[in-house]
Design goal:
Number of helices: 15
Low-confidence stretches: 80-84
Strand content: under 5%
Radius of gyration: 22 Å
Order of helices and strands: HHHHHHHHHHHHHHH
Largest sheet: none
Number of strands: 0
Helix content: 55-70%
Shape: globular
Distance between the termini: 69 Å
């Protein structure tokens, strides 16, 4: 029982820091079951603030190390690699990561730890480094949608809580989109990151700072040209319109970008672009387009 033994390196190593082969359910079944039980006990610690203050926070280094050892890993390939898909082409069936039942408790524990009031900014920010954020963002390319949802919620909470780390997080997200736009052309977590960005953009003060306008011109607009844009266009459109609500004069740049990246050979994607153009025309006055 965690409440009796406390959080220590020996138990962390024994129950949660050892790698298991989750492709075969019966392999090391007993050890896996014990591991899940221990994670459940860790989770229950967070229900009592006294336990959080006296057992968790003093050993935050061990806790974060446990989380890192579990989630930072080579992402499994859960479906056949057919290359970037186009609009109108049937998507491959998304398979379930066999390790997910053992990853989910770790993500849930991390999420509940972050939102816990006893886990203060000063204690947490020490561990949320540039390297941590880089590795965390790489996980957004996971094919398991439930993992991406947890990643989105955790990163959003970290951004909200760790004000001193906000600029670093924004820059890391920006770099991820630069890679998507100019190198990889597909990133499974683009929609989830755009969801986070929509919340961030909503909080931008008016008039927009120069760095925010630069982000709109170098990330939001060029993201339309990516071959797999249809996979995240709904979230991208929301970000575009949020920017226009902050500064209608940006509309001319968006229209110019849509025309520049117009998908002439793809009718389904053309419909998306037309829909976005109509939204722009409804949102701003004619004077902002001349």
């Amino acid at each position: 029982c965690v409440q009796e033994t406390g959080i220590n390196a020996e138990y962390m190593g024994q129950f949660v820091s050892i790698s298991y082969d989750f492709n075969y359910e019966q392999k090391e079944a007993k050890a896996k079951a014990e591991r899940l039980n221990y994670l459940q006990e860790l989770q229950e610690l967070l229900n009592d603030q006294n336990n959080v203050i006296n057992l968790v926070i003093p050993h935050l280094d061990l806790v974060i190390e446990m989380i890192e050892k579990n989630i930072f890993r080579p992402l499994p390939v859960l479906r056949k690699a057919n290359g970037p898909s186009e609009v109108g082409m049937e998507e491959d069936e998304v398979l379930t990561d066999p390790a997910w039942p053992h990853l989910q408790p770790v993500y849930e524990f991390f999420l509940q730890l972050i939102v816990n009031e006893a886990c203060d900014v000063k204690s947490l920010k020490v561990f949320i480094t540039h390297n941590f954020i880089q590795m965390f963002l790489e996980l957004f390319d996971a094919e398991e949608p439930r993992e991406r949802e947890y990643l989105k919620n955790i990163l959003h909470r970290l951004y909200a809580k760790l004000v001193p780390r906000r600029k670093m997080i924004r820059k890391a997200i920006t770099d991820s989109f630069y890679t998507l736009i100019h190198e990889n052309f597909k990133f499974n977590g683009a929609a989830e990151l755009l969801d986070i960005l929509a919340s961030i953009i909503s909080g931008f003060a008016v008039p927009l700072r120069e760095e925010h306008v630069y982000f709109f011109k170098t990330v939001i607009i060029p993201s339309h040209k990516v071959q797999t844009c249809h996979l995240y266009h709904e979230q991208l459109l929301r970000c575009s319109m949020l920017f226009l609500s902050k500064d209608p004069q940006l509309a001319i740049h968006l229209v110019d970008g849509l025309l520049r990246y117009w998908p002439f050979a793809n009718s389904a994607k053309e419909v998306m672009f037309l829909s976005e153009l109509l939204e722009v025309l409804e949102a701003v006055s004619y004077t902002h387009l001349t």
